[in-house]
Amino acid sequence: MSATTEPPDRLEALRRVLLRLANDEAFAAGVQAMPGMASPFGGVSFTEDAQHAIAVIDALEPEERRSPGSISQPRRIDIAAAAGASVDFVDAMLSFAVRYSEQVDSVRQTRWAFHELRDLFLPPPDPPSQWNPRG
Asked: What sequence ranges are listed for the domain Signal recognition particle SRP54 subunit M-domain (predicted)?
């Protein structure tokens, strides 16, 4: 019997980041205040875009979450209606999700591959104490 592994649900990790943007106004304001930062979905407010993106992710079926790039246009219209967003927003969000998944895969293939991705966002560990040969 061969064990099949499920592809990871990368949209769940993206959803956690979006929840932080939607619920932590100070964090969202700090990100938005950075030079060159704009909402990846083309909206004016990070918070509103994050809320719409979470609704889009929640409207997806489990199979669609595993491969968001293969969703048909009629299904995208249904997702937009269920999420209360425009079809253009759903298209932008799904293309962002595909790019996000590709970036997650490329990070896993680099020298950071032995770390969990969540470890990359934690504060760094305390530096080692200074080595003292006399002591």
From this structure: 31-95
